[in-house]
Amino acid sequence: MVNSPHEAMHRIFQQYPGLFSGVSEVLGIDFPPPTSVTVLPNDLTETSPVERRVDTLLRLDAEDGEPLLLAVEAQSGKDPHKPASWAYYASYLLTKYRLQPMLLVVCQDRATAEWASREVNFGPRQWPLLTLRPLVVGPHNMPVITDPAGARKDLALATLAAITHATHPDAGGILKSMAAALRDTPQSIADPIIELVAQGLGKHPAADLWRKLVAVDLSFYKSDLSEGIRDEGRAQRGAEDVLDILDVRGIDVPDAVRERITGCGDPEILRHWHRRAVTAPTAEEIFEDE
Question: What are φ and ψ of residue 233, in 5° steps?
């Protein structure tokens, strides 16, 4: 199933095509840095009705060596059918583009990363026809960056590391270093990173911390996430003001009314209820003229 972490784990390579050079260096594999990168169509569909799509597909061109096709797959769990699909992708890409393909699998948990890292042989046991050997990045081999200087050195790599370490015991330290590094970063660079980290953390507990850091430490940014957080904050304060007035007036607030007030995210409606709360004889009557 496609979700926010899934999208962030591969779209970061579209946002920062040169990121693969940093990743390969971390993995101890010598790939020359590309001189140009082309985002290719990710539709691998054949003329038959079977549709196959790789998450992200890039063409990496370098001064030394032949161009490389990089397929990036975000993997959130073990899937026994995936190795065959990945082998198909590699074969199809080689056939279509006549360029050597490379598969990079991005994971957020160690068990999935270890599973994806296994060599898989296709063909008879006595004479395997194909061997699948994807590169895999995840919490087992991505750097734990807990100082702003380290994050600032390579923001793209730090962003991917933060996403893959969503459940790390020191996720707070990782995210605080990212926030600190972004304070001195131009908004045009920081905004996509803020969004990618938010998407990548998904519903993990670290996501709440990141939202708070964006709202406080990065409050001067105008990204969709930071604006949304500030809107939520204004709505929360508006709901608290309505409840405070009813409390000061000694008016009982049933649970259903309290939930309706606190669940409202429209500042205009909350301002209207705020005015009604000053004179309404009961909590329910702040909604009367609706």
Answer: -65, -40
